[in-house]
Amino acid sequence: MAYKVEKATQIADNIFELWINAPHVAKNAHAGQFLVIRIDDSGERIPLTISAAKEDLVRIVFMTVGKTTTYLSKLKVGDEILDVAGPLGHPSEIKEWGHCVVIGGGVGIACLPILAKALQDAGNRVTGIIGARNEKLLLLADELEENCDELVICTDDGSRGFHGFPADILKQKLEDKNIDAVWIIGPAIMMKITSMATIPYNVKTFVSLNPIMVDGTGMCGSCRVTIDGETKFACVDGPEFDAHLVDWDELMNRQRIYPEQEKQSLELFHE
Ligand code: FAD
Ligand code: FES
């Protein structure tokens, strides 16, 4: 069975959204979970977060960073994807926390709408904070306005919203001392730095880890991460973990183990 693309749109600089017909995923998807897709039988498998699910359709939002995401960005309505495996990973810990802050950096913002909605549905007050290098890289702000009680937009260059980083806004909010749980989703360095802000306040802080994944089922070991000194597989034990227990340096080193192969693969794709 192949999976048809029902909608394909560019939503920001180098960022695209696809709605894919995948009823088995759409009907069972929860916030925090992801898919592993393979476009065709010569393609690699890549993990992408489930950004939304509606009836038979599931949405992915991705940035073009290499061969497979570039290939995905060229798909049009009616094209087919060979494999869509999911939903994978543990859902986010949704319960009545009180006041939750959800923070997205760059393409990590894509993970927030489904999370913010689930938290609101569970009775929480939700503050969203989204950040990007500039306004052309901001995404899904209108949708998040609907699913958050309050949304703060930040850009590194001040081209829209607050001139600065989500961590600056988080620090201000933490001083008000009324935050019960925080989610931070984005590049590893952003998650590491932003999550440091909550340590002195002892606020439960989740991050969604993005190591290289291959099978997504706990068999290959490529997504190995260290949490509180213990080895975990992000695909089956995560992808969300307590931010304050993550070995960030190991994660960032392991994300960069195939730069030459990734470069060659993209060059061959463009030839
Ligand atoms: P490549 O040139 O192959 O790689 C570019 C960089 O992407 C690498 O240096 C590496 O850091 C990372 N990467 C490469 N292959 C993988 C892989 N198999 N698994 C994980 N990372 C890889 N990106 C999004 O844009 N949107 C999302 O919603 C999203 N959700 C993710 C959810 C999870 C659980 C994980 C682990 C990653 C997620 N990513 C997401 C990252 C995405 O999987 C990579 O950007 C993608 O695999 C890059 O493939 P490529 O061939 O285009 O680039
Ligand atoms: Fe293979 Fe997690 S991706 S064990």
UniProtKB/TrEMBL annotation:
The keyword RNA-binding does not apply. Its cofactor is [2Fe-2S] cluster. It comes from Methanochimaera problematica. Binds 1 [2Fe-2S] cluster per subunit. This is Sulfide/dihydroorotate dehydrogenase-like FAD/NAD-binding protein. It comes from the Archaea. NCBIfam families: PRK06222.1. The keyword RNA-binding does not apply. One of its GO terms (biological process) is pyrimidine nucleotide biosynthetic process. Residues 1-94 form the FAD-binding FR-type domain. GO terms for molecular function: 2 iron, 2 sulfur cluster binding; flavin adenine dinucleotide binding; metal ion binding; oxidoreductase activity. [2Fe-2S] cluster binds at residues 220, 223, 235. Keywords: 2Fe-2S, Iron, Iron-sulfur, Metal-binding.
